[in-house]
Amino acid sequence: MRTNHNKPRHLIAVFILLSVALSACGFRLRGATAVPDALNPVFVDCAGNTPIALCEQVRELLELNEVTVVETARESSYTLRLTGLETSRRATAITDSAAAAEYDLRLQTRMSLFTPTEIPLLAQATISANEIYRYDEDNVLAKRREQRDLTEQLYSRLAQQIVFRLTPYTAERIQALIAEYEAAQAASGEAEVQAPDAP
Fold first, then answer.
1. 63 pLDDT band (50/70/90 cuts)?
2. Is residue 166 part of a domain?
3. What residues form the membrane-spanning segments (predicted)?
4. Would you say residue 195 lies in a domain?
5. Residue 85 belongs to what H/E stretch?
């Protein structure tokens, strides 16, 4: 019986052709977002009580989108700043004994995008994610582990939203925002100069 040694090559060729076709149709890997090249390179600044795990997910997702993430603001063209994390949990359902049966876990952070001269391209935008989960008061340890896993999932959702919010920042958009900011600053300065002295 003859063995078809060309079969692996055929499979590789088919895979490559399929990949090219999917790319042409706009298909992207899960988590991949069209972040403009204009934001390269970027520094991710995690301020306040922003969890390291969330920061790492944002950095990894940016790198997945072919954005160069640098270690210091001095090396970067732009700074993505995450400011803190707020966590809240509220009961959404109760048992017959008035104990909580379901909780809504919500995480919220704020993101800003700055130029090297601290011009805000995006200022304190609120990013949030939530999930409802069941709570069993008879199995507290298992539910605590579930909540930790759920928190990691919410970090992932926050990271995806944060990176998605960067997609409009093309070079043209950035230049327009800088021009608007400088014009507003100039107008504010002129108004202060022209203001009469208080009696």
1. very high
2. yes
3. none
4. no
5. strand 78-94
Domain around 170: 30-177
pLDDT at residue 153 greater than cutoff 90: yes
Per-residue pLDDT tens for 104-116?
889 999 999 999 9
**pTM for this predicted structure:** 0.73
Number of domains in the chain: 1
DSSP summary character for residue 197: P
* CATH code, domain with 71: 3.30.160.150
For residue 6, tell me if it sits in a domain.
no
Q: Which residues of 5-16 are buried (b: 16+ CB within 10 A; e: fewer)?
A: eeeeeeeeeeee
Q: How many CB atoms lie within 10 A of CB 199?
A: 3
Give yes or no for a contact between 31 and 42, defined as CB atoms under 8 angstroms apart: no
